[in-house]
Amino acid sequence: MRDLVIIRHTIKTMRARFVLRIRIITFIAVVIAMFLVTRLYFVQIVHGDHYRAQALEQYVGGSSEMPERGEILFTKKDGTTPKAATMQGGWRIAINPKLLQDADTTYATLSEIVDIDRQRFFTGAARTDVTNRDVAFRLTDNEAAAVRNLEIIGVQTVREEWRMYPAGPLAAHALGFVSFRGDTKAGMYGLERYWEDTLRKDGGGLYVNPFAQIFTNISAAITSDSIGQKGTIITSLEPDVQRQLEVELEEIMAAHSPRLAGGIVMDPQTGSIVAIAVSPGFDPNTFNTIEDPARFSNPLIDGVYEMGSIMKPLTVAAGIDAGAISPKTTYNDAGCIKKSGATLCNFDLRGRGVVDMQEVLSQSLNTGVSFIVDKMGHSEFTKYIEAFELDKETGVDLPNEAAGNINSILARGAADVDFASASFGQSIATTPIAMTRALAALANEGKLPEPHLVEAVRYESGVTRKIAQPTQTRVITKDSAETVTDMLVKVYDDALLDGELKQEHYSIAAKTGTAQLGIPGGGGYYEDRYLHSFFGYFPAHDAKFIVFLYAVEPHGELYASRTLARPFGDLAKFLINYYNLPPDR
User: Fold this and answer.
1) Is residue 302's pLDDT more than 70?
2) What is the DSSP letter of 498?
3) Are residues 303 and 336 in the same domain?
4) What is the structure's pLDDT at 36?
5) Does 204 share its domain with 263?
6) SS3 280
7) Residue 328 in contact with residue 296, Cβ under 8 Å?
8) Is the Cβ–Cβ distance between 154 and 106 less than 8 Å?
9) pLDDT-derived band at 209, boundaries 50, 70, 90
């Protein structure tokens, strides 16, 4: 009897194990089926147009010279992602001069359907030593069908694709464009170049069996490593904010005729760049019409400048954080001081007598920030300047980023005049993007954010992954940052244009900068050439935006308060209203 019980128990256990195995196998089968259905959806529905175009291209002609590329997307405030860069499909007409029977009649017939450059057509038709010459481009499907219906011997339509920027010149310096790099087309400048490995798809337009595509890119679905994955990049660029920034820059150009003007709008808490622009700009759809390639570079990223008085809030922050001063610390301002045999003066050469540190920022006193450096000591001041990373690349995802230069205060035996000059933004130089990041620390509880444009990558598998941002580095304490913020709010409310721009219900922290431009080769400074700069963030103690503006060699006004303060004020009002920011006072 006992044996019978044991046998029944054994059979029951085996049956339970069998049922468990069946359930596990069934579960795995269901998961695989769901994965296959999902992949079929992306292949047939999401990417269906792409594969139909490939099949059609192989049927009617050769593959496009433009490699397939992922898209670049803006991100609007409501979360929608309009296209900033995409592939546009169409057709081109190619002729075989060896087979063409009557060039005049052929040209006349084709001209009734499409616009063909006469010189290009007949120059191509005369080349009887070749079998293919392109004579017309970017035809619509209907135009190409009409040409094929003519059945002209020696004429064929060929499917082609090209890079298209739907918003025209909007954000051109951020986007870049696609052009020939050697014998192949690749991203040039901007995001197109920096994210080339992600945007450029493998295969060069060659046909791939869509069923085989079901099993590709599996790694993108199961790994968090984005390196080498192909897809579409989703940026933090907000097109309406970008447009408004560009409008303000154009108005600065029209009013003051600087050599160039630029601006950055960034979230100081995350480092997400909402807008970035340089004027004069260009249209990436017609970049080949620009004669000077220097127009394509982005001086906000690769330009290095002595920034002037927007450096002063960082000097004040360092002094407060080091315990050398407080906002109420006073000194005797004589208007000018002697350092290493050189005379350094306030912008107006005038002394104010005994004033406190608030007045140093409000009246932008060079002697005052030099006093702070003396109180701190040179080594302590240098430590903070290095911590703000003004001499380093920020790592922003745009190409050709330059590093700043603070060698004047790092060199052994650096003179007193070098430290004094550095305190108000002369003798040391940095990039606009690095300066924006350093100033953002004042709005971000003393931490350096990581500037970036790309928030996520949408892989060909359909998986979207956010780009992880590194841990932020603390430069000064939260209390120090808040103290300087309070001081900068007073600058904006009371001192800037005598309080003209003060917002009743919004606190804005801001500062201007006017710097002499250095003569190339170390020959001192120009007496009549300046760099104007301006930064501000708001709402001051929970900042959603930091705005940086600058203009190189503006005319008609000596100080940045007259050239950039009002454009900043207009941009701040736009952002407050557009994002419906709640009042903070």
Assistant:
1) yes
2) G
3) yes
4) 64
5) no
6) coil
7) no
8) yes
9) very low
Residue type, 356: D
What's 115-145 look like in SS3? Answer: CCCHHHHHHHHCCCCCCCEEEEEEECHHHHH
Which burial class, exposed, middle or buried, applies to 336 when counting CB atoms under 10 A from its CB (0-12, 13-18, 19+)?
A: middle
Whether residue 313 lies inside any domain: the answer is yes
- The range of the structural domain enclosing residue 23 comes to 2-46
Is 263:276 a contact under the CB 8 Å cutoff?
yes
> Residue 368's domain is classified under what CATH number?
3.40.710.10
β-bridge mates for residue 200, sequence order: 69
Number of domains composing the chain:
3
Instruction: State the residue for tokens 């690769």.
Output: 302
Q: In whole angstroms, what is the distance from residue 30 CA to residue 479 CA? A: 56
Q: Quick one: pLDDT band at residue 55, thresholds 50, 70, 90?
A: very low
Residue 90 maps to a domain: yes
Half-sphere exposure of 18 (CA within 13 A, CB side): 6
pLDDT digit string (tens) for 141-163? 999 999 999 999 999 999 989 99
103-111 vs 118-125: helix axis angle to the nearest 10?
150
Is the predicted pLDDT of residue 221 greater than 60, yes or no?
no
pLDDT > 70: what percent of the chain? 86
- 500 and 357 part of one domain: yes
Answer yes or no: is 86 within a domain: yes
**Overall residue count recorded for the chain in this entry:** 585
Rounded to the nearest 10 degrees, the angle between the axes of helix 103-111 and helix 141-150 is 140
205 contacts 63 by C-beta, under 8 angstroms: yes
Verify that 390 and 492 share a domain, yes or no. Answer: yes
Asked if residue 412 and residue 264 are part of one domain, the reply reads yes
Residue 249 CA to residue 244 CA, distance in Å, equals 9
Distance CA 452, CA 244 (A): 20
Sign of the dihedral through C-alpha 59, 37, 201, 172: positive
**Could you report the per-residue pLDDT of 451-467, keeping only the tens digit for each?**
999 999 999 888 999 99
* 382 within some domain: yes
Residue 342 pairs in a beta bridge with 339
Strands (E), 199-318: 231-235, 260-266, 273-279
Separation of alpha carbons 466 and 451, rounded Å? 15
Radius of gyration of the chain (CA): 31
Which residue, chain included where needed, has tokens 């309406």?
A: 240
Residues 422 and 539 reside in one and the same domain:
yes
Alpha carbon 123 to its chain's center:
43
Residue 122 and residue 155 share a domain: yes
Q: Tokens 């990049």 — which residue? A: 233
Range in 347-356, 488-497, 502-511, 513-522 with the lowest mean pLDDT? 513-522
Q: What is the CATH number of the domain that holds 167?
A: 3.90.1310.10
Q: Which amino acid is at 504?
A: E
Instruction: Decide: residue 37, CB within 10 A, 0-12 exposed, 13-18 middle, 19+ buried.
Output: exposed
H or E segment to which residue 163 belongs: strand 155-164
Q: What distance, in Å, lies between the first and last C-alpha atoms of the chain? A: 88
Lowest mean pLDDT among 178-187, 347-356, 545-554: 178-187
**Do 325 and 424 lie in a common domain?**
yes
